[in-house]
Amino acid sequence: MTHPDRFLLAGVMGDPVMHSRSPLLHGHWLAEHNIPGAYVPLPVAPGKLADALRGLVALGFAGANVTIP
């Protein structure tokens, strides 16, 4: 689903998360399909997931994945 009038934000949440290759992979497909958006790493401290999820809604994120190593 594309949203030509909107820059889509999505990401991967976790701790640690900066090593994740998901932003590179999803960024490739966003570019490949000319979808304006970004997929970013979102470091979330243990015990802060509920707060982080509320923050995603407040910021208008299109979605997120959660990883637990």
Question: Could you explain how this protein is built, in words?
Answer:
The chain is of the alpha/beta class and 69 residues long. 32% of the residues lie in helices and 26% in strands. The chain contains two helices and three strands. A three-stranded parallel sheet has the order 2-1-3, covered by helices on one side. Helix 1 (22-32) links the parallel strand 1 (8-14) and strand 2 (37-43). The mean pLDDT is 92.
- Using the CA coordinates, give the radius of gyration: 12 Å
Low-confidence stretches: none
Helix content: 25-40%
- Mean pLDDT across every amino acid position: 92
Based on secondary structure, the structural category is alpha/beta
Describe the sheet with the most strands.
3 strands, parallel
Helix count, per DSSP? 2
Q: Per DSSP, what share of the residues sits in E-state strands of 2 or more residues?
A: 25-35%
Shape: flat
Strand arrangement, major sheet:
2-1-3
For the record, give the distance between the C-alpha atoms at the N and C termini, rounded to a whole number.
30 Å
Topology as H/E string? EHEHE
Number of strands: 3
Task: Provide a compact summary of the structure.
The chain has helices at residues 22-32, 49-59, and strands at 8-14, 37-43, 63-66. It has 69 residues and is α/β, with parallel strands linked by helices. The protein is flat and about 35 Å long.
Keywords, separated by commas or semicolons:
single chain, 69 residues, alpha/beta, 3-stranded parallel beta sheet
